[in-house]
Q: What sequence folds into this?
């Protein structure tokens, strides 16, 4: 699967590539708007990560050209400007998602995989890892084909870990993911421990092996 | 008292005083001058008499002289060599039918061996009317002079001070943060021109210092964003390293926490600077009720975990014309502040109408309630807040023209925003 990263900050682009490569995506980088436009017109990408503020132009212009050319690449807008305006403009122009900077790589990983899945299978699909199956449409999780009853937060947590499988997901990233964009996380991470404890308990009750590894003081990792 | 009235009052006071003092002085000195002049004339009459005396050979001659010169009055007298005297008497004047003052010179003379008392008289009537006439003219002149002085001074002062009042008025209306320039006139009076120039320079220097400082905050937090984001992602990549030891993982976790706080702080500072720089201006109709519910939803988990009772009592939809981002920042920070600081099982009450919004929460009184809206003013260091929440609230209110007030009563903290 091919991903184009349009980002002028080299270190940032490098980090994204390094993180996404672990999911066996093929990543290309464009540091300028011109470079990005050329690549977009020549190739088809499964997902384009588009920074809005580029040294030689606005990312939204690239978005417009992409859609004008009838290309259906999935697009996620990355914007340092935490402005509602950019978000609305971007989504109106046909972007699939919007992530305000700064973001956690785990959050980006989850959004990229979500966009790619939607493009590939028109949204109706399942994620299978070991004996666990996640039905994205019904938002249910089953172990060995037996559905288990999860709360909304537990489901979100499960999906977040699986879409970032084999990578350590920090508790900070989980806290932000579960709280939503608008909320400021101002308490400790006890609530994550509580949700995680419940999730693990429900999985083990359904005779699921323990695939979620706790990395003490740092976060969790779903191992495949 | 106005400067104008003060000058005029002093002038007036001095003029009246001078007038009151000088008028009698003037009157008496003129009168004295006249009498002295009169006395000279009378004395010279005595010499005239002596000269005439040489021709008065007989008693007949004397009688004839007396008839010709009525002002000479000779009465036989026994006193010899009486001293010359001058005095004023009032005599009945049959023509004017009133008492008339006369100046009299009296001396003794010897004519043909006989002693006489010689009196020379001169009426003072013409002198007195002259003095009166002079005084009248003097008074009228002085009065006119005074009146003219006051009027001219008033007009002139008003004209002269006019630029001063213009400068004062503009200075009163000037606000350093509303982006309008202070446009002072350049009057023709040198002093005011200097004043105007000095004020303009002072204000310009202040303004550029203010803008510099404002821009610095925004630039600094803007420039910090990228290195912060890079650090965070590198740290996240470091966390992926195979075979991390227990200690290393914990260290990375702690670094991450610090990094997160820094990121939040930076976001807060950037937002504060942007609000200050009035980057959120476009107003829309915002429904308070919806904004409050949205904000409460974001903090629902925390509220539930702390077992808080949250009550929203907004009877009918309240529509306010404001920038939606500003309103979100305002409500979001007030709600998060209330939920964060309410102790377990406490109460949060939110109410609003078209004039104001009130957010109250239970809790113990603050140590420094006066400093509650200041940046980084935290009562305890234990909460993970950035210390910018209420400063943001205050800033939004300043920009939107709202008033925010805090008070503590009935074991509750109350924040009232008046639209």
A:
């Amino acid at each position: 699967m091919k991903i184009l990263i349009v980002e002028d900050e080299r270190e940032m682009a490098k980090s994204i590539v390094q993180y996404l490569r672990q999911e066996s995506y093929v990543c290309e980088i464009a540091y300028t708007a011109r470079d990005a436009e050329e690549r977009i017109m020549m190739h088809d990408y499964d997902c384009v990560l588009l920074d809005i503020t580029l040294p030689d132009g606005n990312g939204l212009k690239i978005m417009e050209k992409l859609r004008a050319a009838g290309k259906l690449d999935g697009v996620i807008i990355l914007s340092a400007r935490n402005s509602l305006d950019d978000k609305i403009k971007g989504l109106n122009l046909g972007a699939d998602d919007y992530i305000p900077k700064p973001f956690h790589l785990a959050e980006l990983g989850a959004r990229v995989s979500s966009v790619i899945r939607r493009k590939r299978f028109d949204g109706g699909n399942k994620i299978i890892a070991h004996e666990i199956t996640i039905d994205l449409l019904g938002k249910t999780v089953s172990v060995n084909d037996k559905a288990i009853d999860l709360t909304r937060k537990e489901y979100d947590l499960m999906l977040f870990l699986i879409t970032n499988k084999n990578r350590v997901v920090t508790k900070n990233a989980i806290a932000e993911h579960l709280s939503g964009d608008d909320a400021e996380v101002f308490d400790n991470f006890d609530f994550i421990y509580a949700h995680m404890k419940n999730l693990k308990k429900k999985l083990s009750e359904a005779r699921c092996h323990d695939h979620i590894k706790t990395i003490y003081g740092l976060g969790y990792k779903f191992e495949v | 008292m106005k400067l104008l009235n003060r000058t005029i009052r002093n002038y007036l006071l001095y003029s009246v005083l001078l007038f009151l003092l000088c008028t009698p002085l003037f009157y008496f000195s003129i009168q004295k001058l006249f009498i002295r002049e009169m006395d000279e004339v009378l004395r010279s009459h005595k010499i005239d008499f002596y000269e005439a005396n040489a021709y008065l050979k007989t008693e007949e001659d004397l009688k004839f002289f007396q008839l010709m010169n009525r002002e000479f009055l000779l009465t036989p007298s026994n006193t010899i060599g009486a001293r010359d005297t001058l005095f004023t008497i009032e005599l009945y004047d049959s023509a004017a039918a009133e008492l008339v003052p006369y100046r009299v010179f009296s001396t003794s003379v010897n004519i043909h061996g006989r002693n006489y008392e010689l009196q020379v008289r001169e009426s003072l009537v013409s002198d007195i009317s002259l003095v009166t006439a002079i005084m009248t003219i003097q008074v009228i002149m002085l009065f006119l002079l005074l009146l003219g002085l006051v009027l001219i001074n008033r007009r002139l002062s008003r004209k002269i001070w006019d630029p001063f009042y213009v400068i004062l008025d503009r200075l009163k209306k000037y606000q350093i943060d509303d982006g309008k320039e202070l446009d002072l006139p350049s009057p023709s009076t040198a002093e005011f021109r200097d004043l105007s120039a000095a004020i303009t320079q002072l204000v310009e220097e202040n303004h550029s210092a203010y803008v510099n400082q404002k821009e610095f905050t925004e630039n600094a937090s803007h420039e910090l964003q990228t290195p912060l984001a890079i650090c965070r992602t590198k740290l996240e990549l470091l966390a992926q390293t195979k075979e991390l030891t227990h200690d290393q993982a914990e260290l990375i976790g702690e670094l991450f926490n610090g990094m997160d706080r820094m990121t939040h702080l930076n976001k807060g500072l950037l937002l504060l600077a942007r609000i200050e720089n009035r980057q959120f201006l476009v107003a829309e109709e915002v429904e308070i009720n919806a904004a409050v519910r949205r904000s409460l939803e974001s903090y629902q988990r925390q509220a539930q975990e702390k077992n808080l009772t949250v009550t929203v009592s907004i009877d009918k939809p309240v529509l306010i014309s404001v920038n939606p981002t500003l309103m979100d920042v305002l409500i979001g920070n007030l709600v998060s502040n209330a939920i964060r600081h309410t102790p377990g099982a406490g109460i949060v009450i939110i109410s609003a109408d078209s004039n104001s919004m009130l957010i109250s929460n239970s809790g113990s009184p603050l140590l420094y309630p006066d400093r509650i809206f200041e940046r980084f003013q935290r009562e305890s260091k234990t909460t993970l807040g950035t210390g910018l929440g209420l400063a943001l609230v205050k800033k939004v209110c300043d920009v939107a023209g709202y008033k925010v007030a805090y008070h503590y009563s009935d074991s509750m903290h109350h924040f009232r925003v008046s639209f």
